[in-house]
Every structure is written in structure tokens, then in C-alpha cells.
Write a structure and sequence with these properties.
By secondary structure, this protein is α/β, with parallel strands linked by helices. The chain has 2 domains: about 5-10 and about 75-295, Rossmann fold; about 305-385 and about 400-405 and about 420-545, no CATH class. The chain is built from 19 helices and 14 strands. It has helices spanning about 20-25, 30, 50-65, 80-95, 110-120, 130-145, 185-190, 210-215, 220-235, 250-260, 300-305, 315-325, 335-350, 375-390, 400-405, 425-445, 450-460, 465-470, 525-545, and strands spanning about 35, 40-45, 100-105, 125-130, 150-155, 175-180, 240-245, 265-275, 275-285, 310, 350-355, 360-370, 500-510, 510-520.
Length: about 550
């Protein structure tokens, strides 16, 4: 569950996701929807409506003692997401254990928000519904859980939101309203046509729900604007108005609408769970309410600072070490992986320099001057084709000739006598190792100005990188890492580059983790491309052993 760490801190599923194996052993209705993956883990197919319904009903029973029924043709809620909204409302009204009154606009067949709010906090709810089937199921779910004294389910006319629902209750002041509005404007949007970025993968879960639950004229944007319109007439009849949004792009125009209407208190938040993101907006006409801060930039900053990484498992490391040992290279798995990475970086003409790091780790400061890793497969195929078409070099060809070919740009053409033989690949790699060592030696003579530049970037742009690469507080890298390309005699700083990063090779249990920490540059996607290339090159080396 990729986003679970960003769930509301009080969400019970934040640090303890549902145990499918345990739930399957306890609930036979759920067991039939749990399968074993290729890795031996119990999994649920979220594209099956029956499986999603079984999980929701099981979690409500196991964790909240609630028994509900939901028809497959109506919206099936996910419990962790609904809990996020409940906890945020707790933050809005400042105190979840006091008796509070709330309105759930369009409660759905599950009536999940009132049932959770009443069970957890003893809240009173007015739950509205326009759909006949949803109304009948919601009322039944309330009754069978003995919640009729806390939850009142009312049937309201189509297109009714707050005004008509409160006509008969002119004296009551509600603390909040909740709403999960229809996200889509039409059936094409509901199917993902013209409403989903083409680069995004398809949804990982099924989209269930009746027409009134998932579609409304103008989509969620116009639906919430209608709630805003009602709130301008009701004003202090509710202390907080709120709604959940399925699209981040809806936030800005809705906040602008509230600003135009001079609503004094406005805030928003994010709901994260599994692979799903939702947003929520709240506003109030009370000057004395406590306004929770919008999501801080901390999560975004952590995401920006989080290194790109990949793991080499123990089995692959043993094969790499065996290959290195046969070639006369003895060292730990970290040393072997670092040496192979340095060979690949040299071939790619990515400037690199070893910098101080923690014991048993290795760190390289990388400066990518040009993108030599893109379309690498096509380039390698072209090189192999050229080798097949050229005559074999005479026996005893000089090492210098091989070196010149190895360090040439991918796809470049050299004379036939300078091409290495396929059987001489190991010699070419040995040359690369020696060249990389020479590179490091030259880079150690970098100027103090380069050192200052590297340390400033490392400390200022990526605070996490400093602790990963320096064994002691205040210790700085001894060079900027801008080693010249192979064969170059220049020692000055590189003025134009794509990006700079720090590559850490770290032992983790019996595995080795390779991390790339961003320092500065033009585009982080380029660093991700390089990470993928390095990972593939290492795994390819394992496959050849």
C-alpha cells in the first residue's frame, strides 16, 4: 500500500494494514475471495465487486462490530478511506468524544459515515438519500445495528442537498456536514475517457455505484458549488461544511468560489490510502472555529528528498562475487557492486568520484553531462551488428586500441583494426577499471572551489544525503566529483550538466541497496532513467554468470 504512510495519523490501518490471511481464516464469506500470489502472499482482486464488498463487510464486522449489507449495483465504500474523512471531521469540530450532530449528504446503501461516526464517537446523524434502493438498504443497516436512536435516514427529492433536508429542523444547529459527491459528469468520464491522464496506469479497483452516486450534471465541481450555494443561505446553521473530491483540479476553482463569496474560514486536506488519493474541502461562517492547517509541505518535501533505489538480493550478489573472484577481484558484496557500477558509469561517460561514507558502505558523487543511457539497447544492438560485419582483428592487437574503442561514444565508428573481439570483453572491462581508478585519482586534485560547491549542494538541496554520505557531522566530501571524461586531461569544474547526485551502495541484511540522492540539475526523470539503466546492467551481469 504505497500511500498508507500518509494516511491520517489516527487511522487504525495506517501502520497495520488488514491481515487478509487472518480474516480469511475467521470469515468464510471473505475466504473465497482471498488468493495466494506467486510470492506466497494472500491477495484480494480489487477489480471484482464481490471481493471488494466482502472485504468492506469483513473489516466493519471485525474492527467496528458492524453488520451491513450492500447491493453489488450500488457504491461499495472502502473502509480506510472513509476513516480518513471521519478523523478529519474530528479535527474540524475539535473533539471526537463529545456529542455532535452531523449531516451526511447522500449516505449511500452502506450508510457508512453515520455508522462509523455513531459507533466511534456517539455522533448524531441526519443521513439523506435520493435513491430508493440506497435508502432502503441504509435504513436496514441502521436498524440491524441498533443505531436508530443516533441515525435518522431520510428520503429526499432528486437534486436536493441541504435546504430541503433542513426545512423541518429550523431550530437545530449542526456541527458539520459530510459529502462524497458524484465525481463524474457523464458515462464517458466514469469509464475514464477524457478524464484520466493517458500516462497513468488504469485503476487498480473496480468502479461500482448507481447513476446518482457516481454521476451528476457538471460532475463534482458543479455539485459542490450547489452545496456552497446552499451554505450561503444557511450560513451558521452548520459550523462546518465539507465535501470529498476525487480530482485535485477541482480544489482551486472551488476555493476561488469561496473567496469570491467572502467565506471567512476555508481549509482543505488530502486523504491517502493504498494507491488512491482523494482531497477534501471545508468552510465555515463562524469566526471562532479552529481551522486545521492544510497538509503541510512536509510530505511533498519528503517525497522530493526520498532517494531512488533498487535492491540486489543475496542470491544475485553471490553470483556477482563469484564472477568478480574469477576475474581476480576480491572484496565485499558492496565493493563488487560499486566496482561494477563504476565500470558502467565510465562506459556511459558519467563523471563519478568516490566520497567519504559510513563504514561498510560506498558513495559516489555523480555528474551527468549528457544523456548517454537513453535508447541504450538500440545502440548496443547496432554495435553488435557492426562487430559481426567487420573482419576479426589480427592476433595480438594492442590494449590501447581496445581502450579507445571502449571509451568511444555509443554508436561511433572506428576502423576495423581497432574493434575489440567478442572474446576480449574481459580485457576491455579491465581497462575500464583502470581508467576509472585514474579518474578517481585525478578527481582528488579538484580545487577547493569545487569542494565548496559540492558540499553546499549536498547540504542545501538534500539534507538526507548528508547523513548518508558523511560518517561524522560536519565532514564534507573531499571533491566535487566532477572528474573529466575518460581520456580527457581537463581538471576544471563542469559548467553545463544534466544533474548531480550521490549514489550510495549500502548493505541491508544480506542484500545490497543502491540509492541515488538528488543534488541539483535539470530534471529528476533523467536520474530515474539512469537508475533504471544501472539496475538493468547489474541484473544483466547476474544473468550472464
Amino acid at each position: 500500500m504505497a500511500l498508507n504512510k500518509s494516511m491520517h495519523p489516527r487511522n487504525r490501518y495506517k501502520d497495520k494494514p488488514p491481515d487478509f490471511a487472518y480474516l480469511a481464516s475467521k470469515y468464510p464469506d471473505f475466504q473465497q475471495h482471498v488468493h495466494t500470489s506467486l510470492t506466497g502472499r494472500p491477495v484480494v482482486n480489487f477489480k471484482e465487486p464481490e471481493a471488494v464488498r466482502a472485504l468492506t463487510c469483513t473489516l466493519l464486522k471485525e474492527d467496528f462490530g458492524l453488520t451491513i449489507e450492500i447491493p453489488l449495483e450500488r457504491l461499495i465504500p472502502t473502509v480506510p478511506l472513509r476513516l480518513n474523512y471521519i478523523h478529519w471531521v474530528e479535527d474540524l469540530i475539535d473533539g471526537q468524544k463529545q456529542p455532535r450532530r452531523g449531516i451526511d449528504i447522500g449516505t449511500g446503501a452502506s450508510c457508512i459515515y453515520p455508522l462509523l461516526g455513531a459507533t466511534m464517537n456517539g455522533w448524531y446523524f441526519l443521513a439523506t438519500e435520493v435513491d430508493d434502493i440506497c435508502f432502503d438498504y441504509a435504513k436496514k443497516n441502521v436498524e440491524q445495528n441498533n443505531m436508530s436512536d443516533l441515525i435518522k435516514v431520510v428520503k429526499v427529492p432528486q437534486k436536493t442537498l441541504l435546504m430541503d433536508a433542513l426545512k423541518e429542523e429550523t431550530e437545530i444547529v449542526y456541527d458539520f456536514c459530510m459529502c462524497n459527491p458524484p465525481f463524474f459528469a457523464n458515462q464517458l468520464e466514469a469509464k475514464g475517457v477524457n478524464s484520466r491522464n493517458s500516462r497513468r496506469p488504469p485503476p487498480s479497483s473496480v468502479n461500482t455505484g448507481g447513476v446518482t452516486e457516481i454521476m451528476a450534471e457538471g460532475g463534482e465541481l458543479e455539485f459542490v458549488k450547489r452545496i456552497i450555494h446552499d451554505s450561503l443561505q444557511l450560513k451558521k446553521r452548520l459550523r462546518w461544511y465539507s465535501c470529498m473530491l476525487g480530482k485535485k483540479c477541482s480544489l482551486t476553482p472551488l476555493k476561488e468560489e469561496l473567496r469570491k463569496q467572502r467565506v471567512p474560514k476555508v481549509t482543505h486536506t488530502e486523504f491517502c490510502q493504498g494507491r488512491t488519493m482523494r482531497w477534501a474541502l471545508a468552510w465555515s461562517f463562524y469566526e471562532d472555529v479552529i481551522v486545521p492547517s492544510p497538509p503541510s509541505k512536509k510530505r511533498k518535501l519528503e517525497k522530493a528528498q526520498k532517494p531512488l533505489s533498487f535492491t540486489l538480493p543475496e542470491a544475485g550478489l553471490k553470483e556477482l562475487q563469484a564472477k568478480a573472484s574469477a576475474a581476480g577481484c576480491v572484496g565485499s558484496s558492496v565493493d563488487v557492486v560499486t566496482a561494477l557500477l563504476e565500470i558502467t558509469l565510465t562506459e556511459l561517460r558519467v563523471l563519478h568520484k568516490r566520497v567519504p561514507c559510513r563504514e561498510q558502505e560506498q558513495s559516489l558523487f555523480l555528474t551527468a553531462v549528457e544523456n548517454t543511457w537513453i535508447h541504450g539497447r538500440q545502440k548496443r544492438r547496432e554495435q553488435k551488428r557492426q562487430l559481426r560485419e567487420l573482419p576479426r582483428a589480427p592476433h595480438g592487437a594492442g590494449t590501447s586500441s581496445q581502450t579507445s574503442v571502449t571509451t568511444a561514444a555509443p554508436g561511433s565508428h572506428s576502423s576495423p583494426q581497432n574493434q575489440p573481439l567478442p572474446t576480449e570483453k574481459s580485457n576491455s572491462q579491465d581497462s575500464n577499471v583502470n581508467l576509472s581508478a585514474n579518474e578517481t585519482s585525478r578527481a582528488e586534485t579538484s580545487t577547493a572551489g569545487e569542494l565548496e560547491e559540492a558540499s553546499e549542494h549536498a547540504a542545501g538541496e538534500d539534507a538526507g544525503m548528508e547523513s548518508s554520505t558523511c560518517p561524522e557531522a560536519g565532514q564534507e566530501p573531499d571533491a566535487a566529483g566532477e572528474a573529466p571524461p575518460v581520456g580527457s586531461q581537463t581538471h576544471g569544474p563542469v559548467e553545463h550538466f544534466l544533474f548531480k547526485c550521490v549514489l550510495n551502495v549500502i548493505p541491508e541484511d544480506r542484500d545490497v541497496v543502491v540509492e541515488l540522492h538528488w543534488v541539483e540539475g535539470q530534471n529528476k526523470d533523467l536520474m530515474n532513467q539512469l537508475r533504471t539503466y544501472l539496475k538493468n546492467s547489474l541484473f544483466k551481469s547476474v544473468a550472464k554468470v
